[in-house]
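Please discuss these two lines.
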Amino acid sequence: MKQQTSNWKRHFATLWAGQAVSLVTSAILQMAIVFHLTERTGSALVLSVASIMGFLPYAVLGPFIGILVDRYNRKAVIIAADLTVASAAAVLALAAMHSELPLWMIMAVLFIRSVGSAFHSTALNAATPMLVPAEELTKCAGYSQSVQSLSYVLSPALAAVLYSIWPLSALAGLDVAGALAASGAVAMVRIPELEAEQRSTKPNWWDELREGFTALRKDKGLFALLMVGTLYMLIYMPINALYPLMSMDYFGGTPVHLSITESAYALGMLVGGLVLGLAGSVKKRIPLVAGSIMVMGLSLTVSGLLRSNQFIVFAMCCAAMGLSVPFFSGIHTALFQERISPEYLGRVFSLTGSIMSLSMPLGLTISGIFADGVGVQRWFLLSGIVIIGVSMLCVALPAIRDLDRTT
């Protein structure tokens, strides 16, 4: 692997300045599409299909996306992915200017944008260790999480305001501008690449996929952490779909109450990412991962025990949940970047992304059935208790504990 450049901090800041713009404009368009579909159809099925378009490409195509990321120039893949997202938004903008958008076109655009995002995130995660020194990866993961959190804080309010005064075509055009800004920032950054002999040229894609899985499976600690993380996501991710029911049905709130919980969660993530960025050089990271899962479990458990007049406490719990997230996802990403050889990173990240994405529909099905049967509040309580158990499992497994000793 080529060495990181001496001025990597400037390159990293330039890269993520472009990403910040793109993340905000993309989130605005995504929410505007949800607003449009809600107003136009009022159909839960249509919204569910739109949601599926968001994770299905990564779940199904992820392993093959990783192969391409490991074969080709990662900087070029990031730029191509940004331009693909921009092209899909441009098509949406042009079509919306001339006629009412057919639902199939909206779903197709969502699918294409999701494919582009899958390429983008995989290539960006795989390229980061080529740019950032190993000892700085956890800190940079924290700052990256903060940038993403900032987009979560800003985009709901911006989307609501802009959607009320601009047509959907203008918001799609705004996303085109954001994607172009991100592409320009990446073009300005020098990202060292794999040497020619490190690139796989096997004619059989399955052999390349097997190589990526073998590289992951050989690291017992990372593999165990992936399995624990998948169990965690299986339980936690479906909770995201239940926040509206908890905020508006159980606590008898309005859309304003829902926006308060979402903002509290996003602000918690922002603070957590900044803290991780400032303290990312800490040696013992597995206790932070387990502690993050524990905080999430405790927050959900407390939420499930609240009375219907304790909404403010629920909002505080949401902030605590958000605060915990970077200490799991940021450290999780950094550990993989540090321990997996660079030539396998694209395949490993795409495999882990696919595994976690595939757990989502199963988790959504389970949570939907149980939440309807026992009530959303009790489901928060049960989920919290199980997640506390997951945090204990995380520190109980010797392979995961050893990650701190062998990193």
Q: What stands out?
A: The first helix runs from residue 8 to 41. The chain has a mean pLDDT of 84.
